[in-house]
Amino acid sequence: MSIDAIPSTVHPRWSRREALARMAGGFGLLAFNGLAHAASNPLAPKRPHFEPRAKRIIYLVMHGGMSHVDTFDPKPMLTKYNGQPVPGGAPKTERSTGNLFASPFTFSRRGQSGIEVSELFPRVGSMIDDFCVIRSMWTEVPNHEPSLFMFNTGTIQPGRPSLGSWLMYGLGSESQNLPGFVVLCPGMPVVGSPLWSSAFLPAVFQGTYLKNNETDPFKLIRNIRANAPPEQQRRKLDLLAALNREHLAVRPGDTQLEASVETMETAFRMQTEAPEAFDIRQEKPETLARYGDTEIGRSCLLARRLSERGVRMVQVYYGNSQPWDNHEDILEHRTLAARADAAVAALVEDLKQRGMLRDTIVVLGTEFGRTPAVENGSNTKLHFGRDHNSLDYSIAVAGGGFKGGITYGATDDFGYRAAENPVHPHDLNATLLHLLGLDHTRLTWSYSGRDFRLTDVHGELIHAILA
Amino acid sequence: MLPADRRGEYERLKATHESLKAELPSKYPFLHGAAEFTPWDLPLHKRGNPEDLGEIVPRGFPAVLANGKPLKFTEGSGRMELARTVAHHSLAARVAVNRMWLALFGEGIVATPSNYGSTGDRPAVPELLEYLAGRFAANGYSVKAMIREIMLSAAYQRTSATQAANDAIDAANRTFWRQNRRRLDAEPLLDAMLAVSGELDRTAGGESKPLDEAFVRRSLYAKTSRFQQDETLSLFDLPSALVTCEQRVVTTVPLQKLFLLNSGMVARRAEALGKRIARDNPSESVAVAYRLVFNRAPTPAELSLARDFLDSAGGNPWPQYAWVLLSSNEFAYVD
Description:
The structure holds two protein chains of two kinds. Chain A is α/β, with parallel strands linked by helices.
């Protein structure tokens, strides 16, 4: 059987014929998966290009721009030359910056690997042997919107499908009772829904955004609360099924109609199953305490529950708007990081304890870093913050086939630019797809006369960080 | 700081400004426009790089689309010439009629409606495409006349029933020997529910409003935006507003059924339809319901299923029965 399961020209109608001929590699696979209606169910699990290392991603976004020189990238030279002008002048960023500005936070060696992590992430530091710290991330534009678009969709403008949508298209969903791509934010991040859009891919592949300020699952998920007693609903559904059977009897073999009947039954079951999945109140109080009863803590706990139930990708935005955008006072990173530290550490602990870290990727990411020089323009009064810096940032990844306890890449002396083994979001996305069993050059969709992919015409696999 | 005598004047002007602003209607119609200025020819941007310039490229029409003969534009910017050249190009006529055909049949004669190039599909019936393009041009590019002609054709009026003999030759129906069975798109689905429940407000024009439970106009007038796409329409495959869409994808997923099961919107439709069909004689009610919802009479089997349901349903059975009809495949799929 061909494993070229992903065609470049999927016909938009998902007819049985098209699906059999082009999508799933023929009857054999359909029978193998036992999915009688795979033809009309675009979310049915699909075979990847090759054996995957990971099955799912939990993508945590510290949006606003997490400062690398204060978290995961120690710069002794920055401390030494604190207050001095940037040799050769500072690169142009969004706003005006002044002299070099040492991190007010101290770094120390952590774990067996001895990777240096700042005091902002003590618990993540204690688990650093599970993480690969990439210190040489870079992107094109020192503005939030284009950089959020870049790592999510592979371009700086709206209109391309997001990573999660590509995963839905390439792999389908493991859970037929839950959405396969969930986006959590207790508010709305800057840019909003275009970040999890399916763009020209089918609408069913877009992220399901849940504004999780609420913990009551009935308030979180639309139309999940049954509006009639179960017996009454059942009676209605029985009549509906009988009428649909009569209708289908004279239209034999129409898989669309069959699928419609089946999805109604799935929806009926979801009313009881989905709320349970989304209900973090069912966790022990001690568990919530480990994650922290904070926005990011509750989001990470919910992300774990959803991942346990087969959700392919959960993307968590830290908070409303862009919380990490500390132009004015970098000490605000302390509060932000304290909450993130507990949440991320508890999440990785739990995944590990459940044996899920093996095939679950956790990304602790951001859209760009911050300048090693102090921001000094008239936009801020207190000159103790940092401007946007797209020339370098740090992220940390764990699980799902990433090597733990290593760093990759390095910045220049002060942490302004990615100097050694620079990694672009295209490279990271190519690597994430690879771990999920997808070749980023073959995961394509024909639109507007050409084949599009997440990594455009770029992206290099980063072999050195694969376990 | 202003001197005292000037301050009074400043405050007065500010108050005038505020009151004039308050008098403005909250929203006023506007149109984006463009004006011509002195045009000039631009140099080639090598590989799209504006800093790596090549030779000046005069304004014109691509030679590849003009029988190999470069066509220069000379009137002003050339926009009007470009528009005219495109509108009267034979390729444009083929593309246009194929899009109309696609809208009426669910599939185009050319299966890649925005790609007629070497990576696109060939027309399934080239003669049909040429015929339609010719008729379109002959009728002065009238879309209305073209749609009328297609809809009056035997091809359009066929049912979606299959036939073994034809199926053996062309199972994919690329030659349109039958009509395609199709699920109603998001907008007509919601509109049809309003229409049969008797709630539809058919007023034309006006401001768009959020598609909430109180919304009873055609969904054409529902508010949607690129930032926040309407969730209900998206649920039934409304494509992203960020990009152009040549053809919608149709999906069948449980969340759509949850919308039918539990949304206030559908509950209201069922309530209204239930009221509309309720009669003293249940058989008469069922007949009325079938005429409204399916445009036909119920079969004896359907009638008996309905009678059993109505007898056993607790509470007011009519909204419950109406809900079943509105959620049925026959309502959502057009033969």
